[in-house]
Amino acid sequence: MSTSAVEPGTRLAERFRLEDRVSESDGATLWKAIDEILARPVAVHTFAPGFPRVHEVVTAARSASRLTDPRLTQVFDAAEDDKASYVVSEWVTGESLTDLLASGPLEPERAAGLVAEAAEALAHAHESQLYHLCLRPSHLVWTTGNTVKVLGVAVDAAMYGLTTDQPALDDAEGLGRLLYAGLTGHWPGDEEEGGLPAAPMTDGHFCTPRQVTAGVPGYLDAVTVRACLPEARRGHGALTTPAEVSDALADVARPMPIPISYPSTPAVASASHTEGIDIAHRQKLAVPPPQPPPHHVPKREGSMVNRVLMTLVVLLVIAAVGVGAWTIGRSLGSPTTPEAQKTVPSTSASASAEAEAVEPESAKGFDPLGDSDEKSDIAKLAVDGKSGTLWKTEAYTSADLGRLKDGVGLLLDMGKSMQISDVVATLGDAPGATVELKVGDSADLDSLKTVATEKNAAGKTTLTPEEPASGQYVLIWFTRVPADAGKFHGTIYEVVVHSPGSA
């Protein structure tokens, strides 16, 4: 297929219809396209005849398609032949780091959280011997679904013909440069990058983040220096892999929606994590604690007032002593009463202590009304104890699962039958999900009993059985999924099952 034949409206693999030409560079063209079978937007790279690295790009794309970390761009298809060579990948919507820095540096903790997510995702890619090698602010995206995405792993390096003998070190340095940019709004390179000015220099070396921007915490300055500023390390060890960068940033807060409990309903129910904190702060400031009215006592009457107050205090103390003595005497005369008093709180305490989190033996995507599987390859990410990873359903064209099925979900195998106290599922922050909790001793939909339902669910959702429920299998079942960036899918960041003991 010649370059002139690749025009808007061209269909590839009889399903991907090219819509809009996004960019073109050195014979590679990026398109926004539509997957006509799944009715979703996708990104498609096509290549002009004679593009020298088509084989390398397609090979890299096929390798990247096996990555399961949801923070890395998904590759859906790749083909190489004389008529048309192309790579089809996930269409990501959101704001790149370049966009986020348009109005200046980010809050240090937010910049660190974004890069921490990227570092952890790249560490997973490195485990599969796949590298990025050209990290730039445009490759790090905060999506409209409030997640981090790293674009172009393996594929971009092949497209631009980049190779290195130290891929882990190159990616660690790239992460350090992204952190530098987030903290300062400058790019630690000889030229501007993505509209960011080059970082200032002193004595021929780049200034550290703290020398450029006030308020950068010392530990983040140190992480940046260790990752990408060798001249300023002063004896500190270098961070030479994405995994080491991830470990260095392990304690920073991750930029994901976290539900916040309010004593009263906040004004904006769907506010993001940051907005929610801000609302709570403003509410607290808007209602100052009541102040006692001022007492204006004439000075000449002060001694009389003090004597009266002292007399009242003495009388109250005498009354308290009398009541205490009467209570002790009554207790000594009725030995069974204290015993009953001791029993009640201990029973309550033991009941609450017995309900403990139980780790599932396995998790899988559950689609008995469709093709039997719903992204089982990433199901374990919903039970790995990490708030930054997630499982999500396939994308659908409507909230009712495109009218293709009545439900889809995540199935947990607890290993043995047990009583279920409750299940806490951290969903995406977009409202609109209808979620059912089903429990049973067989992994068959008809055998699983619905014990709790939550409508318009979002964020941290607790599903508590209306009556005692027990079983080996626990199913979080979506019957409606919320909208997200023009698509509809259910998202679960983490699931925790609580049980008072085996059934």
Secondary structure: elements and pairs:
Layout: E1 11-12, E2 16-25, E3 28-35, E4 40-47, H1 54-64, E5 75-79, E6 86-90, E7 94-96, H2 97-100, H3 108-127, E8 140-143, E9 148-150, H4 155-160, H5 167-184, E10 201-202, E11 205-206, H6 209-212, H7 218-228, H8 242-248, H9 273-286, H10 302-333, H11 336-354, E12 356-358, E13 362-366, E14 391-392, E15 408-419, E16 422-427, E17 433-440, E18 449-457, E19 460-463, E20 470-480, E21 483-484, E22 487-488, E23 491-499, E24 501-502
Antiparallel strand pairs: 1-2, 2-3, 3-4, 4-6, 5-6, 7-8, 8-9, 10-11, 12-23, 13-15, 14-23, 15-20, 15-24, 16-19, 16-23, 17-18, 17-20, 21-22
Biased composition (Low complexity): 343-355
GO molecular function: protein serine/threonine kinase activity
Keywords: Kinase, Membrane, Serine/threonine-protein kinase, Transferase, Transmembrane, Transmembrane helix
Structure description:
With 503 residues, the chain is α+β, with helices and mostly antiparallel strands. The chain has three domains: 10-90, 2-Layer Sandwich (Phosphorylase Kinase, domain 1), CATH 3.30.200; 94-249, Transferase(Phosphotransferase), domain 1 (Orthogonal Bundle), CATH 1.10.510.10; 355-500, Galactose-binding domain-like (Jelly Rolls), CATH 2.60.120. Helices cover 29% and strands 25% of the residues. It is built from eleven helices and 24 strands. It has helices at 54-64, 97-100, 108-127, 155-160, 167-184, 209-212, 218-228, 242-248, 273-286, 302-333, 336-354; strands at residues 11-12, 16-25, 28-35, 40-47, 75-79, 86-90, 94-96, 140-143, 148-150, 201-202, 205-206, 356-358, 362-366, 391-392, 408-419, 422-427, 433-440, 449-457, 460-463, 470-480, 483-484, 487-488, 491-499, 501-502. Strands 1-2-3-4-6-5 form a six-stranded antiparallel sheet, covered by helices on one side. Strand 21 and strand 22 form a beta hairpin. The longest helix has 32 residues, at 302-333. It is globular and about 90 Å long. The relative contact order is 0.09. It comes from Nonomuraea deserti. Residues 332-371 are annotated as: Disordered. Residues 343-355 have a biased composition (Low complexity). This is Serine/threonine protein kinase. The chain crosses the membrane at residues 308-328.
